[in-house]
Amino acid sequence: MMIKQRIRIAFTLLEVLLTLAMSVVLMALVGSAFQFYAVDMNVRNMDVRQTQLASAVMQMIEDDLRATLHSEPSDMSGLESLLAASFGEEEGSGQGTGGGEESEEDLSAAGISMDEEPVESMDTTTLDLTSGVAVMQTPGLIGNQYQIQLDMSRLPRLEEYVLMLDETTTDLQDIPSDLKTVAYYVQADDAMDGVLDPLAELDPEAASLTPGGLVRRSLDRAATVEAATMGNLNTLNQTGELLAPEIKGIEFSYWDGLTWLLEWSSDELGELPLAVQVRIYMIDPALAATEDTDTMSTLDTESMRTFSHIVRLPMAVPLEEEEEDLTEAGL
Questions:
Q1: Which residues contact 78 (CB under 8 A, 6 or more apart)?
Q2: Within 10 A of 209 (CB to CB), how many other CB atoms are there?
Q3: Which of 83, 150, 274, 309 could lock onto 58 through a cystine, CB 3.0 to 4.6 A?
Q4: Is position 265 within any domain?
Q5: Count of alpha carbons within 13 Å of 3, Cβ hemisphere only?
Q6: Dihedral pair phi/psi, residue 45, rounded to 5°
Q7: Band of residue 39 on the pLDDT scale cut at 50, 70, 90
Q8: Domain count, the chain
Q9: How confident is the model at residue 13 (pLDDT cuts 50, 70, 90)?
Q10: Assigned domain for 11 exists
């Protein structure tokens, strides 16, 4: 007698549940893999963008620093000796009447001063470019750890003459000249009187906010000095260019030939630093992908990404050589 076997033509409920569970787990693994890949690609993209931005900013700062001008006093020793010799000959021939005293009077009448007046030094600890400008007695460089201002010599470009005819700008009226005063500093977020982002006009909500970031201000030295002495600081603080809102900090240090200093004033020291080290800080892309926007603003410089560059100043003279020359001259 034959026994008929039962043929199963469907899945059981347990098998369906197990299949669905495995499908959910597999889709979760595939989704997490795609998310990890997207985050990793975003971090790498931000890393490349930050590197390119840091390279462009460092190149701009290097070009400005290498063009820094420092005026040296004119050497009148040859002219003084020539005039003294001519006055001595006149005295020997009976035409002179006073000797050395008369020669000094004649030198003063000729506009030559034997004794130079001391230049008033400036305190770099009170330097705050966000609330004013440091007026230097002679063109040079002044700065502290977080801000720097320099006078550079560079021929004006053709587009600077076009900007003179633009009457819609609210900045100070700049004029094309070969002597510019350039300042670099980091502007705080929501500053009262700060440089606005030109792209903020595209976003009406962000138009009233002042973004933070690296600011570069370039003005004619005469216009800068006039604005500082006449008290036009509000317009001066709003003048400049917001280079990179991504830069959250900048630091400078100055090499005098022996040590790195955190402050420098060419009016006080008499010379330019031999080299300037520049450090800029930007938020690490890995932290930016995981942290919130509110917590990123409170990060210190140790947890940020750092870019460093050392710039040598061609017109700088070591301070030791100047002291040796003064010692040899008996001063």
A1: none
A2: 15
A3: 309
A4: yes
A5: 2
A6: -65, -45
A7: confident
A8: 1
A9: confident
A10: no
One DSSP character per residue, 282-306 reads E--HHHHHHS-HHHHTT--GGGSEE
Question: Residue 276: its pLDDT value, please?
Answer: 94
Using the predicted structure, report yes or no on whether residue 219 has a pLDDT greater than 50. yes
What is the edge-to-edge ordering of all strands in the sheet holding 275-282?
260-261, 247-255, 275-282, 305-312
Q: Which contiguous run of DSSP H or E holds residue 55?
A: helix 13-66
**Spatial distance between the Cα atoms of 267 and 263, rounded to a whole number of angstroms:** 12
Q: In terms of residue numbers, what domain contains 296?
A: 38-73+120-328
The contacts of residue 110 (CB under 8 Å, 6+ apart) are 83
Question: What does the pLDDT look like over 220-270, one tens digit per residue?
Answer: 888 788 777 777 777 777 788 888 888 989 999 999 888 999 999 988 888
C-alpha to C-alpha distance for 18 and 214, rounded to whole angstroms: 58
CB 61 within 8 A of CB 243: no
Helix axes of 77-92 and 100-109: crossing angle, nearest 10 degrees: 130
Per residue in 73-91, pLDDT (tens digit) is: 667 777 778 888 887 766 5
Widest CA span in the chain: 162
- DSSP for 90-101, written as a single string: HHHTT--SSTHH
- Is the distance from CB of 236 to CB of 174 less than 8 angstroms? no
> For residue 159, what are its two tokens?
């587009």
Q: Which pLDDT score, from 0 to 100, does residue 251 have?
A: 94
In a domain, 63, yes or no: yes
CA distances from 200 to 205, 211, 215, 240, 302 (A): 9, 9, 15, 15, 30
Exposed, middle or buried, 295 (CB in 10 Å: 0-12/13-18/19+)? exposed
The per-residue pLDDT for 309 is 94
Q: Within a domain: residue 177? A: yes
Q: What is the pLDDT of residues 102-152, one digit of tens each?
A: 445 554 554 444 444 443 444 554 566 655 567 778 888 999 999 999 998
